Amino acid sequence: MSRHASVPDLVDEFLQSLRVEAGASPLTVSAYRRDLRRLAAFLARRHRSLETARPDDLVAHLGSLQARGLGPRTRARQIAAIRGLYRFARAAGRLADDPGALLESPRMPRRLPRALSRADAQALVEAPGGDGPRGLRDRAILELLYGCGLRASEIVGLRPGDLDLHGQFLVCQGKGARQRLVPIGGEARQALRAYLEHARPALVGPRDPDTLFVNHRGRRLSRQGLWDLVRRHGGRVGLRRAFPHALRHSFASHLLEGGADLRSVQALLGHADIGTTEVYTHLPTDAVRRMYRKFHPRAE
User: Fold this and answer.
1) pTM, rounded to two decimals
2) Residue 272: CB partners within 8 Å, gap ≥ 6?
């Protein structure tokens, strides 16, 4: 590593490359920054630094995280941050060797998405009542979550110009700054028109004029605000575990139950790898159960 470049500078350069070149989200960059600070503090207690760390130092650090009870997902993110930093340093000519090259991520438990039933999804989407600005806003948001399968980050990042209600589609910015076109169904279009005509003008403030969904202060709706919104309406209809991704999972699962092919669902969800979408094929849906009972010789 160049003696003229301090370690914090290197970390900042690495995180900047994640933002600009890899399109990492602010949440990922913030988490990586915390992870690398923890590593630097651990190395300092061993009288080493990021630039002088050896492979056994990194293994010891990860062992200490496991001993503290951190789960495999958190440890996997820590490893990704460490490996990313040292690959960046090696590529930039700052280090001759990569001490993180042999680190292996822990095996991740496969989590099956929890989809709502069709009746529960419909009840949640229709939970906002009245014609007030917040009710119209909430109905439009819930319609998009279930009708388009958008992520929470995609919902809060939408702008009015991303909608083409005449063409019946929207443009959203997904992970890795990848854009995709998503069809908008009839119920969602109707809810969006009501929100745009009768609610948004009363809610939007001067500081965020190009934001589609705003909070009661006229500012961009936050991810936390979106989670609270979904949980609140879920509670109104008796759903204890209502959250934005439950509607996205339900969108995908109900499409497959209705006969949609996996590649189409992959495109609609914005998954870069079809392996991510394939998790939905492991769900014991009603359609799969009916097919099994109908065709398998030992089903009864």
Assistant:
1) 0.62
2) 175, 176, 178
